[in-house]
Amino acid sequence: MSVQYNSPVILTFFLLSLGVLFLGQYTGGWTTTHLFSVYRSSLKDPLFYIRLFGHVLGHGSWDHFLNNMLLLLVVGPPMEEKYGSLPLLKGILLTALISGILQCALFPRTALLGASGIVFMLIMLASLSGFSGGIPVTMLLVAALYLGQQVYDIIFVRDNVANFMHIVGGVCGTVFGYVNAGPRRKRKH
Question: Of 1, 65, 149, 179, which residue is least crowded by CB atoms under 10 Å?
Fold first, then answer.
């Protein structure tokens, strides 16, 4: 029996996030703030473009990291197997970009970091399992429960959680699932 690197995109995402967390602790949070959190800044700043994508790797604490990574490691590998490594990587990058741009446009005074948007993209993607043309009841139930919880939290809970970006991640996962749900062809890893 040998150890397999069975889900290269998800495992690499996990390892990069872990490295970013350690780096943030080593630098007293400097790298987390300046490289792995997205916030409105000058378009002339080259680090802005790194932050647009890198914010999904940053986490504010071990609890934040563990909560995201546990779900990522459970939901991610089956989605990578189903859709392929390259399409999933593109979905992750597009979700990071969209959430980063929306954060800068809609919430200019706050920073965003963490893999929650990616996790919710994967959750909605997983809820589309078995999609064959109709709207899966599982997707409707997950969307209703998930959106309901996020809207409730936006209205009634005051914390540092970016609930709107969770919704953005969920929408990205739903769109990704529908776009990639056509006739199954052999996908390149």
Answer: 1
Contact yes or no for 112/39 (Cβ under 8 A)? yes
Q: Where is 79: in which H helix or E strand?
A: helix 62-83
Residues of the chain predicted below pLDDT 50: 183, 185-186
Which residue reads 């690499």 in tokens?
Answer: 12
pLDDT computed for residue 128 by the predictor = 83
Tell me how far apart the alpha carbons of residues 60 and 104 are, in angstroms, rounded to a whole number. Answer: 19
The structure's pTM equals 0.88
First-to-last CA distance in the chain?
A: 23
Domain architecture of the chain: domains with CATH: 8-181 (1.20.1540.10)
Beta carbons of 52 and 93 less than 8 angstroms apart? no
Q: Give the other-Cβ count within 10 Å of 51's Cβ.
A: 25
The answer to whether 131 and 80 have CB atoms below 8 angstroms apart is no
DSSP β-bridge partners for residue 38: 112
**Closest to 18 measured CA to CA, from 52, 57, 76:** 57
For 117-139, how does the pLDDT look when each residue is reduced to its tens digit (9 = 90+)? 999 999 989 888 777 777 778 88
